[in-house]
Fold this sequence. Notes:
Mean pLDDT of chain A: 87
Number of strands of chain A: 10
Helix content of chain B: 25-40%
Mean pLDDT of chain B: 88
CATH superfamily of chain B: P-loop containing nucleotide triphosphate hydrolases
Number of helices of chain A: 17
Number of domains of chain B: 1
Largest interface: A-B, 23 and 27 residues
Oligomer: heterodimer
Low-confidence stretches of chain A: none
Order of helices and strands of chain B: EEEHEEHEHHHEHEHEE
Distance between the termini of chain A: 28 Å
Largest sheet of chain A: 6 strands, mixed, barrel
Structural class of chain A: alpha+beta
CATH class of chain B: Alpha Beta
Radius of gyration of chain A: 34 Å
Structural class of chain B: alpha/beta
Number of domains of chain A: 2
Strand content of chain B: 25-35%
Strand order of the largest sheet of chain A: 2-3-8-5-7-6
Distance between the termini of chain B: 11 Å
Amino acid sequence: MITLTIALRYLLRRKVRMAAIGALVFLGTVVIILGETFCLSARHYSEASIINYFTGDFILFSAKSKEKPSPFSFTTPLPVIDRPHAVEAWLDTNRLVLSYVSIAQNYGLLSIDKNGRKTEVPFIFYAVDPARYMAVFPNIALVKGSFFTDRSGNATKGVVLSDFQRTIYAKNYNVDFSPGDRVTLLSLTDGGSVNAYPSQIVGIYEPKFYKNVFNYINFLDITSYSRLYNFTGVDTASLPPGFNQALASGSDQEIFDLAGKKSFGEIDTKLLVSRELTGYTMIAIKLKQGGAAASFLASLDKTDFGVKAANWKDASGFFASVAVIIQSIIYGATFLIFLIVVFILMNTLIIGVLERTAEIGTLRAMGGEKTFITAMFLWESALLNGAAALIGMIVSFALILTLKQTGGVRLPDIMAQYLVGGGALELLVSARPFAEAVAVVLVVSFAATIYPISVAVKISPLKAMSSK
Amino acid sequence: MTDSPIVQLTDVRKEYFLGETKVEALKGVSLSVNKKEFIAVAGPSGSGKSTMLNIIGCIDTPTSGTVVINGLEVSKLSDKDLTRYRRITVSFVFQSFNLIPVLNVFENIELPLLLQHVADPKARAARVMALIEEVGLADRIKNKPNELSGGQRQRVAIARALVTNPVMVLADEPTANLDSATGGRVLDLMRKINGRDGTTFIFSTHDQRIMDYAHRIVQIQDGQIIVGEQKANKA
C-alpha cells in the first residue's frame, strides 16, 4: 500500500515534528484518562464516604419538620419522631434495608467539678444506641476509654467526647476531660427550665472521616438523653381532658381558669397509657443496594409513621454540594488542560497537512483521487496518534495502578475533607476513561486531518503546487 | 500530421492578479494540437507558455474561452472527470520536478501506476524498470530525490510522466536542468516514444535542441501566439 508507505516514510523523515505531535497526543491521552479517572473516583468515593460514614442512604425525620436534617442543626433540633420504635420495627422487616441507627441531635451543657473548680462547657451531641451506631457508621477511632462499654464489654452510660473538642475545652476553659470524670448533663427544655442528669465521661474519640463535622460532635447514650430531657413516656391522650385543654391552650389565663375547676388535677393513674418517647429526631438508613432508593421511598410512602426521608445529598447539608463543586472544578480544570492540548494538537496537525499543500497539488495534478490523498494523511495520523495514544494509555494505566496500590491520590486536607471525608482519594479503575481517550484522539486526529485536506483539495492543483 | 485534434483551444484568456496588478497571461489564444504531435511552445519568460500548458493539462482554468480535450469541453467536466483525465490521458513533467520527497526513484516512477490502480506488481515493476533503464538511472533506483542531482531528478520526473503510456505529455522546460548529453538522451527517448506509441508531446522550452526536434514550434509572446510554424516531420 503506497499510502501506508508514504505515511511511514513521512513519520520517519520528520522525526522532530512527529515526536512533538506524538508528545501532544500522549499528553492529551494521559490528561483525559487521569482526569476522568480522578473525577469518576471522586464522584464514586464522595458518595460512598458520605453514605458510609456520615448520613447513610437516607435519613428519616419527622414529617412535622420544616427543615431538612443537617449535621449543623444542633441548636435548632428537628422535631422528635413520634413512634421511633414502630419505624425501627418496620425497618427490621424491610428487605431493602441493610442497617439503620436512630439519632437524637441536640445540645446541652457539661458541668464538671475537677481540681476544686466547677466548670460548665457547652457541647453538641448525637444521642444514640452506641452499639448500633458503631455498626452502621464505622467512623470512631477511640483515643481513650471506650465507646460506651466497660472492661467486660457491657454497655455503659455516659458521654464520649471528641478529642478535638476536649482540646478546645482544655484551651478555652482550662479543664481537661478524661474517661472516668463524673459530670452533670444540663439541658434546656422547651419550657425554659434546666434539667440536670448525673453522668460520666466514658471515652475520647477521633473521627476517621469528616473531621470538620465530627470533631465538633460528641456522643451521649440514648437512655441518659431520654432522662435528661424528661421523655417520661405518658401518652397525652390518656391524660384527663382538662390537662389536654391546658396543654393546647395559648393563654395563661385560660390555664388558670382550668386549674380553678375542681376536677382539674385529678388523675387516675390506672387510666394512664405509657408511651415510648426516646427523643430521636433522625433515623439514618443504609440500603443493601444504592439502586433500591426509589423502591425504598415507595415502601415508605405506604406507611403512616409521620416521617419523611432526606437522601444523602440533602442530609449531608452542604457537604454533597461542596463535593460536587470540587468535582466540577476538577472537571473544569481537566477540560481546560484538555482543550489547550487539543487546540495545540489540532493546530499542529492542520499546519502539518497545510505545509504539504504543494505535494497534495502534485498528486492532484497526477490524477490522484481525493480518497487516495486523504488515505495517505489518515494513515500518517492514525499510525502516529494511535501509537502515542496507546503509549499514553499504557502509562496512564500503570500510573493508576501504582497510585491505587500506594493508597490513592493524596489531596490537600481541606479538599479531601469535603470530597471524601479526608485521607487519600482511592482510584477507581474503569474502562470508561480509556474509551473516552480513544474516542477523543480518533475524533481530533480525524477532524484535524480531514479538514485541511478538504481545504487543500478544493484549490486548483496549480495553486496548490505553488503554495509554500 | 493527419490525426484528429486532441487539444483545441479557442480564444483562451487567462487573467490573474499579482497583488493589485492585473496580469493578462493569455490574451485570446487559439491552438489546435493533433494526436501524435511533438510540439515546442517557445517564447520568452512570462510570455504565457507555462500558463497555456497548465490549462491544457487541466491543472488551471481559463478566465474565458473554450478548451476541448479529446472532444470534451473541459469547463463541462466534473472535478472527478478532470482528475480522471489527468490520471489517464495526460502526464506532466514539471519544471521543478515535483517528486515525492519520501519516495525513492523506483517508487516515484511507480506512483502514477498505483494511482491508476494497476494491480499486478510484476507488471508495474517491469514497466518502471524499463523506464529507469531508458533514462539511465538503474544505479539510483533506491535513492530519494534529495540524493539525486537536478538532472537525475528531471529524468525521474520524465520517467514518471511516461510510465502510464499517456495520450499526451506536457513538459515545462524539460531539459532546462540537464546537460547536453543527458538532454539529448531524454529527447531521443521522447521522440522514440512519440514515434513508437504515438504519444503527443507539448513542451514549453527555450532549448533550441527541442525546437529542432519538434514537428511544430508555437511561438508565444505577451500571451499571444505569434507564429505556429509547421516543420518537416523528423519522426
